[in-house]
């Protein structure tokens, strides 16, 4: 009898389906509150399906008195307004890195498993918000396109395609992350999303280069863009020395101490600098960057980074 798969090694379809019940507490919609992470830089194409409740916040001069929330006002002792936005129809493209570099993890899951969970959370959340969901899935040797659609079947197609590409990773040669496959996928995405789309990029933290930044800059001019880099703690913090290995001359076991060459500190500093550069570029260009690690459930990480929808004004409103 074959041994059961190691939990967290590869994504599981049943787990991804169950995540539809945990895809709450964050929103990818534009037009959020000023203090939210995604302020919305442009209007999306509107189909005229009505108004969507956005949040409850403190009353401001000029607010429509008909939108006063008297229960929240009584509860907080301060005037509170209910805020609505026009419901928007937009395509969402999940651009997902499924290259061999993603088949790595030192804690509870591999990067590819966490990436698949982020994809599932985003797909279920966007579908619940009424958006059409599609994907551009890429590995070192392929790019797979799934056209946006507003249906559960479309989400299931995306998840099953993610699983199919992830299942190939154990048999593929290991390779460090590189920008070539990512840049090719971004070029393909640009042909599918010329304007008014939301593009969620779920990618290895170490995959980008100057060409990637140029491609992202072109995409963000006419679309909403979010970058979700996935990394593992071991990539930023080497294990405590000494390391046991083999001597270069094959003479037998050897003990390696990264402290001797300051390797541990250089790795830590390099990763921190790369992440800060990525987040800094995102701030300059109004592109949210949400780093996700393999050491915690992605739903909790997304809620912590994006779920600031319940502001300290005593509102308590939820995003759609």
TrEMBL record:
InterPro entries noted in UniProt: DUF58 (IPR002881), VWF_A (IPR002035), vWFA_dom_sf (IPR036465)
Q: Which organism is it from?
A: Pseudoroseomonas ludipueritiae
Signal sequence residues: none
Q: What is this protein called?
A: DUF58 domain-containing protein
Query: Looking at the record's lineage, which domain of life comes first?
Result: Bacteria
User: Can you give the residue ranges of the VWFA domain?
Assistant: 89-268
């Amino acid at each position: 009898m074959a041994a059961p798969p190691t939990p967290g090694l590869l994504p599981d379809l049943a787990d991804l389906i169950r995540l539809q019940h945990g895809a709450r507490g964050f929103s990818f919609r534009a037009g959020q509150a000023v203090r939210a992470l995604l302020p919305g830089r442009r209007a999306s194409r509107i189909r005229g399906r009505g108004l969507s409740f956005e949040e409850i916040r403190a009353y401001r001069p000029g607010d429509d008195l008909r939108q006063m929330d008297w229960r929240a006002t009584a509860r907080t002792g301060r005037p509170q307004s209910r805020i609505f936005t026009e419901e928007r129809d937009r395509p969402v493209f999940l651009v997902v890195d499924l290259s061999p570099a993603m088949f790595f993890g030192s804690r509870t899951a591999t990067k590819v498993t966490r990436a698949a969970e982020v994809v599932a959370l985003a797909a279920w959340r966007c579908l619940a918000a009424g958006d059409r969901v599609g994907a551009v899935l890429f590995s070192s040797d392929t790019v797979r396109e799934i056209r946006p659609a507003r249906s559960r079947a479309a989400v299931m197609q995306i998840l099953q395609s993610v699983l199919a590409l992830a299942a190939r990773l154990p048999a593929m040669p290991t390779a460090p992350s590189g920008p070539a496959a990512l840049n090719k996928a971004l070029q393909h995405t640009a042909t599918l999303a010329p304007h008014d789309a939301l593009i969620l990029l779920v990618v290895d933290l170490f995959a980008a280069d100057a060409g990637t930044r140029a491609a992202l800059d072109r995409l963000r001019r006419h679309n909403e863009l979010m970058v979700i880099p996935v990394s593992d703690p071991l990539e930023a913090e080497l294990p405590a020395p000494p390391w046991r290995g083999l001597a270069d001359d094959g003479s037998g076991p050897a003990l390696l101490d990264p402290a001797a060459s300051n390797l541990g500190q250089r790795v830590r500093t390099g990763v921190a600098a790369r992440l800060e550069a990525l987040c800094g570029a995102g701030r300059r260009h109004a592109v949210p960057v949400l780093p996700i690690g393999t050491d915690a459930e992605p739903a909790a990480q997304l809620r912590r980074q994006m779920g600031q929808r319940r502001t300290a004004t005593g509102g308590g409103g939820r995003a759609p």
